[in-house]
Design goal:
The structure holds two protein chains of two kinds.
Chain A: H1 4-13, H2 19-41, E1 43-51, H3 59-68, E2 73-79, E3 82-87, H4 93-103, E4 108-116, H5 120-124, E5 131-132, H6 134-137, E6 139-146, H7 148-169, E7 176-179, E8 184-188, H8 192-205, E9 209-214, E10 217-222, H9 224-249, E11 255-259, E12 263-269, H10 274-281, E13 284-291, E14 300-305, E15 310-314, E16 319-320, E17 324-331, E18 337-343, H11 345-357, E19 362-372, E20 378-389, E21 397-401, H12 406-420, E22 425-433, H13 435-463, H14 465-488, E23 493-494, H15 496-525, H16 530-562, H17 566-597
Parallel strand pairs in A: 5-23, 14-20
Antiparallel strand pairs in A: 1-3, 1-4, 2-3, 6-12, 6-22, 7-8, 8-10, 9-10, 11-12, 13-16, 13-19, 14-15, 17-18, 18-21, 19-20
Helix pairs in contact in A: 2-14, 9-12, 13-14, 13-15, 14-15, 14-17, 15-16, 15-17, 16-17
Chain B: H1 2-9, H2 13-27, H3 29-56, E1 59-60, H4 62-65, E2 67-73, H5 80-91, E3 96-99, E4 105-110, H6 122-125, E5 134-141, H7 143-171, H8 174-198, E6 201-202, H9 204-234, H10 240-272, H11 278-299, H12 302-305, H13 311-314
Parallel strand pairs in B: 1-6
Antiparallel strand pairs in B: 2-4, 2-5, 3-4
The chains are: A alpha+beta, B alpha+beta.
Chain lengths: ~600, ~325
C-alpha cells in the first residue's frame, strides 16, 4: 500500500495495451479460426451433372440410378440446372461418373467435383477449405511447349512469297529471296533502284516488318514488339483451346495457365489415367472455307453451327486452314468490328479465283478438331463458326465483317488462327500422382506437423515454465492463423513442401518468443522488476526479430517468384508463417503477458 | 590490460561499472580460444567440402536431368534382379531399379524418353512377373525442362544471395555483414558437400531446402551481429575480441533453444514425412546444425579478423540502450 504513490505514474504507461488492440487481436483470431475450420472437415468426392435449363434432371432420378448401381451418396443437391452428388466413398467417384454419364448421356454433362464437408452455416459465411496441390490430392500434370518457330516461319514464308510475286510482276531480274530462319527474310540484288522498289513494296504491304540494308542485301524482319505480340497471341489462343477441351473432359477444377514465355501448365486433379487426357490435349484443329450450298441440296454435306442449326455446304472446301497465316480482330469503318485474314500465296490464288466467281454469295468457315476417344480411335468434330457474304474479289488479304461484337470478332480471329497453327504443342513434362500416394503424403505431412508441434510445445513449457505457456498459446494461435490465411488467400495451394514449410514454421516461430524471453531474463538479472523487464525486453528484442525474420522473408519471396508448383507452396507457407509468427510472437504474446504479468513489480523472479 | 589501467584511474560511478565489465570480459577470455579453434575447423571443413563437391559431383534428380521416373507397387516377392533385365530390354537403355521405402515398392528410372507411340506399357513389360501392378506416380520430364529448372534454380540462389547481401550491407557495417555472408556460404557449401558425398538425389525440394537454409543460417549470425553492434556502442572501451565473446555468450542460450526447437521439428519431418521429404529434411537438419556452428566460427570471428572496431559504429549516433 505504501508504494502506491511510487508506482502510479509508472504503471499507467507500462505494459498496458489499449482496448482496441485487444479487439483487433480477438476479431482477427476469430475470423481466421472460422476460415481454418472448413479444412478440418475436408472435402468429399462428388459428381456434378450440368443440364440445359429446358431439360433438367431431378435429384430423385439421379438417386434411383445410383442406388441401382449400389453407390451410396451422402446427399444430392439440386440447384437450378446443376445436380451435385456427394458420394459416401471417394473411390466410387469415377464409377459414379461413368454410370451417370451413360444414363443421362444426351441430357447432361457429368463432371468430377469436390464438395466441402463442413457444415452449411460455415460455408454460407463464405469460408472454404484449403485447396490442395496435386501432390496431396493426386492427379495428372502436363507442361506443354508451344512451338513458336513454326508460327514465325509461316509469317516469313508469306512475306518471301509475296516479294517473289512482286518481283515477277515488275519484271525485276537478278533478285534472290531467301528465308533467313525465324521471322526473317533476306533479299539480295545488285541494283540499287530495285532495292528501293522492294523497300517501298514492303513498307506499303507489310508495315509491321522492318527492313535493314547491308551492302547488296536487304534484311526484312518482324519488329521485336510485333514478335512479342505474335507470341502472346499464339500462347493465349492455345490456352483458350486447352481450356475448352479440358472443359469437355469433365474436370471442373482443372488449372490451365501460362508459364514463362511459351509454356502452358495444365493440372488435372483427380484424373488417374493420363492417356485419356493426353488424347484430348494433343488433339489437332483445322479450319476450312466452304461455299454454302442451297438448303436441302443433295450435293452437299450438313454441318451444325454453334447454335446447332444445320448449314448446307459444298462437299469440297475452297481452301483449308493451312493456308491461313494470320487472323486478327480489328475495328473497321463506322466502328464495325472485323477480322483481318492473311493467306499464303497459294491460298491467295485459290481465294482470288473462287471469290471472283462468287460475289454476293455466302461462304462458311468450318472448324474441325481431331482427337482420340477413350478407345484410342481418332474422331473428328466439325462445326461452322461463321457464314459471311462475299462482297468483292478477295486476294491473299481479306476481311470478314459482320462477325458481331468486337469480342466475338476476337473469338473468331482466335479460332481462325487456331486452324492455321496445327499441332504446334508438345508435352515436355508429365507427372502423375496416384490418389493413394496423395493421401499418404497428407497423412505423413500432418503426422510430422503434429509431432513437431507436440515436441515444441513440450519443450517450451519445460524450458520457460512461467512464460512458456504464453509462447505455446502464441504458437497455437500462429498455426490457426496460418491455416486460416491459406484458406482465405485466393490461389493459395497447400503442397507437400508446403506442409514442410508449416513444420519449419513451428520450429522457428518460437524464436520470436525466445528472443524476447532471453532479453527479459537479462533485464531481470540486471535487477529490474518483472514488469519493467517485460517492457524493456520486448522493446530491445524488436529490431533483432525484424532483422532475423527479414532475411528468411527475402528467400521466401525469391522462391515464390522464381520457383514453380510445389516449391511455390513451400515459399508460401514459409513467408506467411514468418508474418503470422511475428504477429503472434510480438503482438499476441505481449497482450497476454500484459494482462497476466503487467503489474508484477517483484524483482529477482526466475523465468 | 591497457584499458584496465586507464579505467581504474577514473573515480566515479561509471568506473565501478566498467571494472565490473572488465572483470566479466576477463572471465570470458577462455571463449576466444574456443572460437578460434572452431574457425580453424570451419576452414578445414570448407576445403574438404569443396574438394568433395569437385571430385564426386552431384546425383542430379529427375527434375534437373530430364527422363522418366515411375514408382510402382508389385508383389513383395519380386526382386530387383528380376525387374531389371525386363526393363532394360523393353526400353533399350540402362534402367535403374531402386527399392522404395516399403517392401514391394520400386522406383524405376531411365534417362531417354521414348517416343510417345513407341513407349511400351509398364503393365506389359512386367507381365511375365506379375499381373498385379499399380503405378503410384510417374514423372516424365523433357531434357529442355530439366535444363531450364537448373537455370531457374541457379538464378533463385543468385538473386536470394544478392538481396541478402544488399540487406546486410544496408543494415550492418561491411565487416559484420561479410561475417554473416561467409557463414552463409559456409553452410550452403557444407550441405552441398554432404549431398555430393552421400550421392543422395539432389532434386527440387532439396534446392528449396538450401534456399531456406540461406534464410535460417543468417538468423543466428544476425542475432550475434546485432548483439555485437549493440555492445560496441554500449561499451566503447572494450576491445572487439571481448565484445565478440560477450555477444556469443549472451546469445548462446537463445541460439541453442531456437536451433533446438527447429532441429526437433525437422527431425519430426524426417521421421514422419516419408520418402518425398527425406532429402529436404536431411538438408535442413545439416543446414541448421552448421548454421549454428558457423554463426560462431565464422559470423562472429571473421569481422574481428577484418578489423572491426568500436569507431565503426560510433560515427552514427545511436541512443544508448537502456
Amino acid at each position: 500500500m505504501t508504494s502506491i504513490d511510487n508506482n502510479k505514474p509508472f504503471n499507467k504507461q507500462l505494459n498496458k495495451y489499449a482496448q482496441w488492440k485487444y479487439w483487433v487481436l480477438i476479431v482477427t483470431l476469430i475470423i481466421l479460426f472460422l476460415s481454418a475450420l472448413p479444412s478440418w472437415y475436408g472435402e468429399d468426392a462428388a459428381v456434378q451433372l450440368s443440364t440445359k435449363p429446358t431439360n433438367t434432371i431431378s435429384s430423385e432420378q439421379v438417386y434411383k440410378v445410383l442406388s441401382h448401381a449400389g453407390i451410396s451418396s451422402k446427399r444430392i443437391d439440386q440447384q437450378q440446372q446443376n445436380v451435385l452428388v456427394v458420394l459416401q466413398q471417394a473411390d466410387q467417384q469415377t464409377l459414379a461418373k461413368n454410370i451417370l454419364s451413360e444414363s443421362f448421356a444426351d441430357r447432361a454433362q457429368v463432371t468430377l467435383a469436390l464438395a466441402p464437408a463442413a457444415p452449411n452455416w460455415l460455408l454460407n459465411m463464405g469460408f472454404e477449405p484449403i485447396k490442395l496441390g496435386l501432390d496431396l490430392r493426386g492427379g495428372v500434370q502436363f507442361l506443354l511447349d508451344v512451338d513458336l518457330d513454326l508460327v514465325f516461319k509461316n509469317q516469313s514464308t508469306m512475306v518471301s512469297d509475296s516479294v517473289k510475286q512482286f518481283v515477277r510482276q515488275e519484271h525485276i531480274s537478278g533478285v534472290l529471296v531467301r528465308q533467313a530462319g525465324g521471322a526473317e527474310v533476306s533479299i539480295e540484288t545488285t541494283q540499287t533502284d530495285d532495292r528501293g522498289l522492294i523497300r517501298q513494296f514492303i513498307a506499303e504491304q507489310y508495315p509491321l516488318w522492318q527492313v535493314s540494308g547491308h551492302q547488296d542485301t536487304l534484311l526484312v524482319s518482324l519488329s521485336d514488339s510485333e514478335q512479342v505480340k505474335l507470341t502472346n497471341l499464339t500462347v493465349q489462343q492455345n490456352l483458350q483451346i486447352m481450356r475448352s477441351r479440358i472443359e469437355e473432359l469433365g474436370i471442373t477444377e482443372a488449372l490451365v495457365q501460362r508459364q514463362g514465355e511459351n509454356r502452358i501448365r495444365i493440372e488435372l486433379p483427380g484424373v488417374q489415367d493420363p492417356a485419356t487426357a493426353k488424347n484430348v490435349i494433343g488433339a489437332t484443329a483445322s479450319l476450312a472455307f466452304y461455299p454454302v450450298a442451297e438448303t436441302g441440296s443433295v450435293n452437299a454435306i450438313v454441318l451444325k453451327d454453334e447454335s446447332d442449326q444445320p448449314v448446307y455446304v459444298a462437299r469440297k472446301p475452297v481452301l483449308g486452314g493451312d493456308h491461313i497465316v494470320d487472323a486478327r480482330a480489328a475495328v473497321g469503318d463506322f466502328g464495325m468490328s472485323k477480322v483481318n485474314i492473311s493467306l499464303d500465296s497459294a491460298g491467295g490464288k485459290l481465294m482470288s479465283d473462287f471469290s471472283r466467281d462468287n460475289i454476293g454469295k455466302p461462304m462458311a468457315t468450318a472448324y474441325s478438331e481431331y482427337s482420340r476417344n477413350d478407345k484410342g480411335q481418332a474422331q473428328q468434330t466439325t462445326k461452322i463458326i461463321s457464314v459471311a457474304t462475299i462482297q468483292s474479289q478477295l486476294g491473299s488479304k481479306f476481311e470478314i465483317t459482320g462477325a458481331g461484337t468486337h469480342q466475338e470478332a476476337q473469338q473468331l480471329a482466335l479460332l481462325l488462327r487456331a486452324g492455321s497453327m496445327t499441332a504446334p504443342v508438345t508435352i515436355v513434362e508429365e507427372r502423375t500422382i496416384g490418389p493413394s500416394l496423395g493421401a499418404e503424403n497428407i497423412v505423413n505431412g500432418f503426422a510430422a506437423l503434429a509431432l513437431g508441434m507436440a515436441v515444441t510445445l513440450l519443450f517450451m513449457a519445460c524450458w520457460y515454465r512461467r512464460l512458456g505457456w504464453v509462447a505455446n498459446v502464441a504458437l497455437i494461435a500462429n498455426m490457426v492463423m496460418l491455416f486460416g490465411l491459406l484458406a482465405l488467400i485466393p490461389g493459395a495451394v497447400l503442397t507437400l513442401p508446403g506442409i514442410a514449410g508449416l513444420v519449419l514454421t513451428v520450429g522457428m516461430a518460437v524464436d520470436t518468443n525466445v528472443l524476447i524471453f532471453e532479453r527479459i531474463k537479462d533485464k531481470l538479472a540486471d535487477g529490474r522488476s518483472f514488469a519493467s523487464a517485460i517492457d524493456v525486453g520486448f522493446d530491445s528484442a524488436f529490431s533483432t526479430i525484424i532483422d532475423a525474420n527479414f532475411t528468411t522473408m527475402i528467400t521466401a519471396v525469391v522462391l515464390f517468384s522464381i520457383g514453380n508448383g510445389p516449391i511455390q507452396g513451400f515459399a508460401l507457407t514459409l513467408g506467411l508463417g514468418l508474418l503470422t509468427s511475428m504477429f503472434t510472437g510480438i503482438f499476441a504474446s505481449r497482450a497476454i503477458i500484459n494482462l497476466v504479468y503487467g503489474r508484477d513489480t517483484r524483482r529477482a523472479i526466475k523465468v | 590490460m591497457n584499458s584496465n589501467e586507464l579505467n581504474s584511474k577514473k573515480v566515479n560511478l561509471k568506473q565501478m561499472n566498467s571494472v565490473q565489465m572488465t572483470n566479466s570480459s576477463n572471465a570470458l577470455r577462455y571463449l576466444t580460444k574456443w572460437r578460434y579453434a572452431s574457425s580453424l575447423i570451419s576452414v578445414v571443413l570448407m576445403l574438404l567440402s569443396l574438394t568433395v563437391i569437385g571430385v564426386k559431383g552431384f546425383n542430379w534428380g529427375l527434375d534437373f536431368t530430364g527422363g522418366v521416373v515411375t514408382e510402382i507397387q508389385i508383389d513383395q516377392h519380386i526382386t530387383a534382379s528380376e525387374i531389371q533385365p525386363l526393363m532394360t530390354a523393353a526400353y533399350q537403355q540402362d534402367v535403374s531399379v531402386i527399392s522404395a521405402s516399403d517392401p514391394g515398392r520400386w522406383v524405376l528410372r531411365y534417362a531417354n524418353i521414348p517416343d510417345e507411340n513407341q513407349r511400351p506399357e509398364l503393365q506389359q513389360v512386367l507381365a511375365p512377373l506379375t499381373s498385379n501392378l499399380t503405378v503410384l506416380n510417374s514423372s516424365i520430364v523433357g531434357p529442355q525442362v530439366g535444363q531450364e529448372l537448373v537455370e531457374q534454380g541457379g538464378l533463385a540462389l543468385l538473386v536470394a544471395m544478392l538481396c541478402i547481401m544488399g540487406y546486410l550491407s544496408y543494415r550492418f557495417e561491411w565487416r559484420l555483414a561479410s561475417g554473416a555472408l561467409f557463414a552463409l556460404v559456409h553452410d550452403v557449401v557444407f550441405v552441398l558437400a554432404f549431398f555430393a558425398l552421400s550421392q543422395m538425389e539432389f532434386n527440387l525440394t532439396v534446392l528449396a531446402a538450401i534456399l531456406a537454409i540461406l534464410g535460417y543460417s543468417l538468423n543466428d549470425s544476425i542475432i550475434i551481429a546485432d548483439r555485437v553492434r549493440e555492445q560496441l556502442v554500449a561499451k566503447p572501451q572494450w576491445n572487439t575480441t571481448d565484445i565478440n565473446n560477450l555477444a556469443v555468450k549472451s546469445t548462446f542460450s537463445r541460439t541453442m533453444v531456437t536451433s533446438g526447437t527447429t532441429l526437433l521439428t525437422v527431425v519430426a519431418l524426417w521421421i514422419m514425412g516419408g520418402a518425398p521429404l527425406e532429402g529436404f529434411s536431411i538438408a535442413m537438419f545439416i543446414g541448421i546444425l552448421t548454421g549454428t556452428w558457423s554463426s560462431i566460427s565464422v559470423g562472429a570471428t571473421l569481422p574481428e579478423f577484418l578489423g572491426l572496431k568500436t569507431e565503426h559504429y560510433l560515427i552514427v549516433p545511436l541512443p544508448d540502450t537502456p
